[in-house]
Amino acid sequence: MSVSLINSLSVRCRIRRLASAGLLLGLSGCSLFGGGKPAPAPKLASPETLYNNGIDALRTQRYTLASAEFEVLQQNYPYSGYIANAQLMEGYSYYLKGKYPEAVQQLNRFIGLHPTSADAAYAYYLRALCFYEQIADVKRDQQGTVEAMDALEEVITRFPQSQYARDAQLKIDLCRDHLAGKEMLVGRYYQQERNYEAAINRYQRVIQDFQTTNHVPEALERMVEVYLDLGLTDQARKSGIVLGYNYPGSKWYRYAYSNLKRYKLLSSNFPIPGKVVTAQPTAPAATTQPPTAAGTAPAPAAMDIKAAPVQPVKKQRIEPQVDQAPALR
């Protein structure tokens, strides 16, 4: 290698070093003269301002902003007088946004920290609504329905005189009807698969555990179908009598009446479909117990039974080949 080539390489290296040094001096000079001064941190708003901003965001349906304002208030002013309201309203913001798990978590936090608050009843009720809004379709698992019922019952137990207790009871009835519908769905599937024992267990659970729901008439009629398929005529007659005396105007009794007539199992104990059954006076010694959903002895003429849940239809002859229960699907 020649001497001239070595000298040219050395000169290049020196130039690079000088350029780097100049750049560093320039940057340091900028910082010395105040060119790189950091921007001042923004001033944090007061607790009252943060809370009012959150309320304004709620009123304008900006739920994400509202929950953020309430969260900032809680993190920066943990001993403020607004802290309890901020916790409750943050849970409400999540509820309106549809973020039910986050709402439940926040409401549990409020309940744990303020169990004696005047807003405790509302917090329990709002938490129950979060579970209620997550109830799944009847074809899916109903664990959410059970959780909603438990939360609603807690509202009634803790605050029976509150304004939320009545609505909680109405929603409990809807939850029970939903659970009964699930049992009927499974029972119909078992019946279609000819697993009659499992089907009867499902129908009996509806009759015994969900007596106030609208699914009881169908459950009784389906039991008549199953017992007839099994050749258990006595049980079929008992289920039909219970159905007829409690729901004489129901379409399900018309279906059961038609099936029993086809098998020649009708007797004078069976009410005419569509005719409301009324108690007739009898001698005291002749009184017996009325039929129940569980199935007992045939019904006497005089008994105390529930009114038909629907308007009675006109008395008419029922033909088995025309009036049949809907096919199982």
What does this protein look like?
The radius of gyration is 37 Å and the shape is elongated. The protein folds into 3 domains: 73 residues, Tetratricopeptide repeat domain (Serine Threonine Protein Phosphatase 5, Tetratricopeptide repeat, Alpha Horseshoe); 72 residues, no CATH class; 106 residues, no CATH class. The chain is built from 12 helices and no strands. Helix 5 runs antiparallel to helix 6 and helix 9 runs antiparallel to helix 10. By secondary structure, the protein is mainly α. About 16% of the residues have low confidence.
User: Rg, please?
Assistant: 37 Å
Tally of DSSP β-strands: 0
Order of helices and strands: HHHHHHHHHHHH
Mean pLDDT: 80
> Approximately how much beta-strand content do the residues carry?
under 5%
Distance between the termini: 95 Å
How many helices? The count is: 12
Shape: elongated
Structural class: mainly alpha
- The structural domain count equals 3
Contiguous uncertain segments of 5+ residues? 23-35, 282-322
Binned, the helix content reads 55-70%
Main sheet overview: none
Family: Belongs to the BamD family.
TPR repeats: 84-117
Organism: Acetobacter malorum
Region (Disordered): 281-329
